[in-house]
Amino acid sequence: MKKIILSIVLFLVMLTVVNAAESESPIIKVTLLNQDPTPARAGDTMELRLRVENIGGGTVQNLEIEVVQNYPFTVIDGPALQNLGTLYAYQTAKNYINAQYKLKIDKDAVKGKHELKVRYRQGKEEGITVSFNIDVTSKEFAQIIYVDKAKLEPGKETEMKFTITNIGSAPLQNLVFSWSESNGVILPVFSDDTKYIKYLDVGDSIELKYTVIADVNAKPGLYALDLNLKYEATNSTSTVIKTKAGVFVGGETDFDVAFSESTQGQTSLSVANTGNNPALSVSVRIPEQAGFRVTGSNSAIIGNLDKGDYTIVSFQIVSSGMANSSRQSGQRPSQQDMQRLRNQTGIGNNNLKVIIDYTDTTGERRSVEKNVPIQFRTASGENTQAMSHLPTRQQTGWWQSKTFYVSAIIIVLGLGFVLYRKKEWRDRILNIVKRKK
Questions:
Q1: Would the pTM of this model clear 0.70, i.e. be above it?
Q2: pLDDT digits (tens, 9 = 90+) for 29-67
Q3: Given this structure, which CATH class describes domain 23-137?
Q4: Using CA atoms, how far apart are residues 87 and 30, in angstroms rounded to an integer?
Q5: If DSSP codes are grouped into helix, strand and coil, which group holds residue 324?
Q6: In degrees to the nearest 10, what's the CA dihedral of 126, 127, 129, 130?
Q7: How distant is the alpha carbon of residue 229 from its chain centre?
Q8: Hey, what CATH topology would domain 255-384 get?
Q9: Domain 142-249: which topology?
Q10: 3 state DSSP class of 82
């Protein structure tokens, strides 16, 4: 009996000694405080905070903690191994130490729970490893990666295409795409601005087509389109993407050139801006061409022409072939010369080539070529082709012409004949009178 009692006493004493020894030793406890975001998304980053406590009665120095970099986690923006310094006895509750990490999740990580290992040790000890389960979800992400039109002409129907691509690692469903322009300058026609896509698999793209018109009175410039894309992931969570795209309204224009008049050595042309955009720094020039020659300057600067505006420009234009012929002879060209000139130069269709240079609303210099039928007026007032400004011979008296001399000769001969015939008839009458006597 005494032996049993002695054994119990000894056991209690030993237990007390062990408990006392353990209470004087440090006990490290590591727990997962939080992660952001939850769940972590494949291909993205997350911030991890670990709570480190000493629930034992002893002090620990040079405590090191390390995140083991196993798939799919990689430590970025800092070391994987951190030295937390000294943890005193019973340093718990609000006195814990916070260890913070930034982790990159592999883009190909599958959806589910992934084990994250954390090792801590004191000095040269082997260390103790604890594990935590991190929720990872696939990356659902769509991107509007292409808008096929960067420039719209006012008042003209234009097809505009938006391409949406699933660049994530999970399918998308119930996509809703829409766009708008805050000033109402650019609007869709034949449909509204909203398109629906039921399903878009990983890596797939879809093209959404619209017919749009920019207001014909729109001020040239860059306009912002507000793009909105809403979609659902496989876990039925909705995501909205809002972005912008720039579209330029403006660009080229067109001109109409018409013959106005030809007087006193000047040929006038009417130049009108018939397009829907203003033209800047407009100039008109007459290039070298067969059948025509410009005396003086062959170009004229107009300046700016708003749409619908027109102006008059004048040039000294002569027919190159006829002018040379007349200059050499000093005489007015004959009808045969005029016909020969038409045959040689094609003046029968009398199209004058005119080039208009201008700067469009995008800042690009452009040229427009026009063929203008023109008519010149002769001194007699008859409309002819390409006969204006030709040197003419001086007027001379009719008695100095060949016709006068020919006519005079004929008259003299006629009078002579008459006189001769008159003498012959007088002689006959005298002979008859003598016979009667």
A1: no
A2: 999 989 988 888 888 899 999 999 998 888 888 899 999
A3: mainly beta
A4: 13
A5: helix
A6: 160
A7: 23
A8: Immunoglobulin-like (2.60.40)
A9: Immunoglobulin-like (2.60.40)
A10: strand
